[in-house]
Write the structure tokens for this entry.
Amino acid sequence: MIVTREWLQEWIDINDVPTQELITIFNSIGLEVAEYKKIEIPKNVVVGKVVSCQKHPNADKLNLCEVDVGEEKLQIVCGAKNVVHAEYVAVAKIGAMLPGDFHIKPAKLREVESFGMICSSTELGLPKLEEGIMILDHSIGTLEVGKELREYPLLNDEIIELELTANRGDCLSILGIARELSVVLERSIKEINYQKPDQMQIGIGRIVQFQPESDIESNVAYKAFQLETQENPLLIRYRTALVGEEFKNFADILGFYISHATGVVTRIYGLNFFTDEESYTIRIHKDENGYDAVYGTKKGSIIGVIQFDEAKPVQNDTIYILETSYIDPSSISKKMYEHPVKSDWVYYRSSRGSDPRLSIGLEYAKKYINEHYENPQFYAGRHEVEKEIVKEALKISFEQLNQIIGQEIEKTRVVDILKNLGFEIVSVSEDSLIVKPPVFRHDIANIQDIAEEVVRIYGIEKIDSRPLMYVEQNRITEAYLRYKAKKSIRERAVAQGYVETVSYIFVNKEELEKYGFATVHKNLDLINPITNEMNTLRTSLVPNLLQQLQNNIKNGYKRVKLFEIGTIFDQKREESEEFVLIFSGQKEPESVVNHGKAPVVDLPTFLNELSAIIGDFDVSEGEASHKLVHPYQVAKIIKDGKYIGQAYKLHLEMQKELDVPTTYIAQIDFEELTLIYPKAKEYSVYQRSLKDLSVVVDRTLPYESIKTVLEKNLPKEVRNFYPVDIYEDESLGDKKSVTIRFAIQSFEKTLTEEEISKILEKILKILQEEIGATLR
């Protein structure tokens, strides 16, 4: 970013601040100075007025000029074509020393004497402005014939080049840099105070219509004006060249100048571009790539990206449309990534965040055009689409802010700094404040950004040096916990010999219905399925896993263990995650131990492996929920007191139809599956006794009912219990024998046999009273 001292002076009073002090300030507030240069036009170069200009008598390409330099009139031979139309010029008098040790002496050119030289900008050590000599005008100050050019501060300026980080789009303007200085110097920014009303009584709506579509994302504003000439003033051309930009069209130069000065992206169109035979209309709508585009006779520009040559003013234009615009930097950057298109200088500014206060750009343009162009005429009113830009408020803890900074800064000083930087102070309390960033600060998102603002203005040299200390924040989120759970489940499943599969979320609807699974409601189903076999969203992972099982069996595998964790949908098309395991065929690999005849997998084996994967769980009698479930070998899986899924044997009819061996399946709701690290519990140092109690109960009574009764009434000394045997015999009639093992242990002492017997008697009494059990 290039600024000049005199250009900054337009926005902030720095007359009493030495340039070296400005450089120090810039470096201290994070705007690193990369280069500094002082422009000094040589002595004896003065303002001259061309009194007459005629052809050289002995040379077709030379002109013989009479130039008034104040105290005298000089005869000067000049070869520049544009001297014919020049009035005020830069004249190097006899004795001047120009850059490159070029001495100006009396000379004779084609037999005609010449006393001095009419200079181009490059001959004075300035950037190239035009072909030929440099033509002066009053934009650099009141021109006085004979006055030395080195006395014009606007030409003899000081240039400071700043290196900005990509997030500081607010500093890509003279106003933005002046705003930073105003905070440090505690001085006000000069307002654009131009009171002159629009010269034309005719409103802009009388000459050009405005038709923006409702879905455009940009803010835009348009102003119409007339000019008698397309010549830009010297000051505008000079400063644009100092910045390092070069344009062919006068409107490009003016638009860039306003943008660089204010930070508001500015374009200029010729009115004739918007003609449609009967009237003039500015149309804005989305183009083929989703960009906001401005249309006239054709697409003229993409807002925030590029203006096409066809939309720029041509030689015969006299009425112009000035456009200021803003588009969210993240939005335009994302679009450019997704649909890259050709861009010009504007994209660099809009993608980093231009100033959304379009009125500043319009008022500055109006002021500058009225002051420096000949007889401009502005039409009343303006066309605009301006949506309110709302910045999210940030709550800042003073304690946390000081921790980040590494030093306590007075709360009032923090508030003053933020207020001076343009932040809106919503509220301040004893321990925190709530602020809203200014609309031109697109880089402020969190407390770390606020801390950076405070430190760079407060002065990093005032922060005491301390040893580096890391303060770790808790970054464990729900998403991280789900990721960690999946990773853990996968690792455990693989450790048990299961192979992970990954399948499409699309399945065959007829297959789901055949197996008895629910399907997505018809009005929510896929409209254009990718194939006839994948015509709906899956409501279970099981059908896809069964296909994988069939493929493996056909390839000769006698033992197949598969699992998958994936998204499924319910009838309302709401998503959830399911975890499914399949164990099919042999219980163990064939080996010498089993003589090459491995037994077939059974439910206890399957459940033991499932326990090794998801941790301890309980089972209870289940019911067939679809046609794949064997009605007599199905169990509910209960973990931490919650139902999380079911384990079952594949129905014999389905097993036969699919042509697969004995198969067991577990379907688990992954979102209900909790994987919590075990926490330390109090334990007893005294001896534990294991005692069995055999009781006779009704044959139809499930163990789950016995367990429920015991859990409610157990003596405190019983640590846990579990069944070890269930026996049925004709001699028991409609009864069965259940043997339960109890772990008995006290936290206070070693229990005697007598005390243990009394505890067992209490348990037996509970069972007798609650379920009618008798001692076997």
